[in-house]
Amino acid sequence: MRWLAAAAGGLAALGWFAAAFAHAEPERATPGDGAVLNTPPGEIVLVMTQEMARQAGANDIDVLDAQGNEVTREPAVIDPADRRRLSVRLPADLPPGEYVVRWKTLSAEDGDTATGELRFRVDPSAAPERGRELLKESMLGGGPTPAAVPPPAVTGGAGEVGWVLVAAVGAVLFVFGLGAGVVFSRRDT
Ligand SMILES: [Cu+2]
């Protein structure tokens, strides 16, 4: 029983940490981060890692051109059937150029806010590229290994460092939880 309690404590600590770390951040993006498109996309679609809170102005996508001017003319909307899906329509006459996709979310699961940026380029004469469409993988799930999907060096290596940190802190919390479980089970006896 003691080890059962200890394992439960460890798992509880790990689960708490995983939930606290994961905000509503893009898991998938269309177009992908760093995409090169021959024609402007009709919309930007981001599927988040958590459900978003339906609160006016709390979740949005702004698309900015190379001069920093906003080109989106309407707010982003959460899919009525899927609270993880946020999308915004783009003007049909979007000229060629570099664009920044600036997003913000309010998680319905833990109330955390998050922000970030993605990029795409419209260039009628360039070779098209899909960019990085899968941005995050489930922490405990399977999916392709990092070696199979090398992340493009478009936005820097912060994500890589982040996951190493997550693994390290998660391990420490797991051990801490084990200890707490042992203490509690000893108190019972
Ligand atoms: Cu969170």
From TrEMBL:
Annotated signal peptide: 1-24
One of the record's GO molecular function terms: copper ion binding
Family annotation (InterPro entries): CopC_dom, Cu-Rt/internalin_Ig-like, Ig_E-set
Pfam families: CopC (PF04234)
Ranges for domain CopC: 23-122
Annotated transmembrane regions: 161-184
Keywords, ordered alphabetically: Copper, Membrane, Signal, Transmembrane, Transmembrane helix
GO BP term (any one): response to copper ion
One GO CC term on file: periplasmic space
Gene3D superfamilies per record: 2.60.40.1220
Protein name per UniProt: Methionine-rich copper-binding protein CopC
